[in-house]
């Protein structure tokens, strides 16, 4: 992967200390307790930059920004940056002067959080480098596999989609509703309301008026007519018949009117 032409800053720490370290006595690693921690050789700020795949640890003056030392890091963890065995705030850094000479110095942070940020910044950068390398390999393997399959539509090309489920649903809906019926179908599980047919003697569409029946009178009403007599239309007195009854001839028994007979 070709290196990019710009340099990005990935971490800045305002205060770090630099120590002279003795040669490594064993292969177990460096110990910060062997350094003179109360007498740092230099103090300043640290700035970590990235250019392409390489990260650069730069030790600079706090005020002027003058470069004190620089350590290019091509791999982490690796020989360029090592952690000590007895503390998480101190590291051994391999610095270079650009002429092929290098030296190992001790670098320490005042705060434990600063050392954590330093560690995470380097890890994230090289994680990105690995991902870029994998993507580049996949792109190369795809190009070597052959021409890509073109699944796009050509000019003027069309497709036809047959959706059968919609037609089936429409058929079911039309069957469930009988044509020409003015009544809604009965609810599921319910009984439909029937229409009472006309009597067989009647023609369809014709309704005969009911036949009036004469009022029935009981035998007691015939024998004993207790209803009052209807008033005369002439307006005469109800006793007019009695008053107008003919006088009996001499020697004849007077006749009783019919309306008082029992």
UniProtKB/TrEMBL annotation:
Its main location: membrane. It comes from the Eukaryota. Keywords: Endocytosis, Protein transport, Transport. Residues 6-164 form the NECAP PHear domain. Residues 164-262 are annotated as: Disordered. The keyword Ligase does not apply. Pfam families: DUF1681. It is found in: Cytoplasmic vesicle, Clathrin-coated vesicle membrane. One of its GO terms (biological process) is protein transport. One of its GO terms (cellular component) is clathrin vesicle coat. Residues 249-262 have a biased composition (Polar residues). PANTHER family: ADAPTIN EAR-BINDING COAT-ASSOCIATED PROTEIN 2, ATP-BINDING CASSETTE ABC TRANSPORTER-RELATED. Involved in endocytosis. Belongs to the NECAP family. This is Adaptin ear-binding coat-associated protein 2. The gene is NECAP2.
């Amino acid at each position: 992967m070709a290196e990019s032409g710009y340099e990005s800053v990935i971490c800045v720490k305002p205060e770090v200390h630099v120590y002279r370290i003795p040669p490594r006595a064993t292969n177990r690693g460096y110990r910060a307790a062997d350094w003179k921690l109360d007498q740092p050789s230099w103090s300043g700020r640290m700035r970590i930059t990235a250019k392409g795949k390489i990260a650069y640890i730069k030790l600079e003056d706090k005020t002027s920004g003058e470069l004190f030392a620089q350590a290019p890091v091509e791999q982490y963890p690796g020989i360029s940056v090592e952690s000590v065995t007895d503390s998480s705030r101190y590291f051994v850094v391999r610095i270079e002067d650009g002429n092929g000479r290098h030296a190992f110095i001790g670098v320490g942070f005042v705060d434990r959080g600063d050392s954590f940020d330093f560690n995470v910044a380097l890890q994230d950068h090289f994680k990105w480098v690995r991902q870029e390398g994998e993507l580049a390999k996949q792109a190369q393997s795809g190009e070597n596999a052959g021409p890509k399959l073109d699944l796009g539509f050509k000019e003027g090309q069309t497709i036809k989609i047959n959706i059968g489920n919609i037609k089936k649903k429409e058929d079911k809906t039309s069957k469930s509703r009988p044509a020409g019926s003015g009544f809604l179908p009965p609810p599921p599980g319910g009984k439909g309301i029937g229409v009472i047919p006309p009597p067989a003697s009647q023609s369809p569409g014709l309704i005969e008026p009911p036949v009036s029946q004469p009022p029935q009178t009981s035998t007691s009403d015939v024998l004993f007519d207790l209803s009052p007599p209807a008033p005369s239309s002439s307006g005469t007195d109800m006793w007019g018949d009695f008053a107008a009854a003919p006088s009996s001839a001499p020697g004849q028994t007077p006749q009783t009117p019919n309306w008082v007979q029992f």
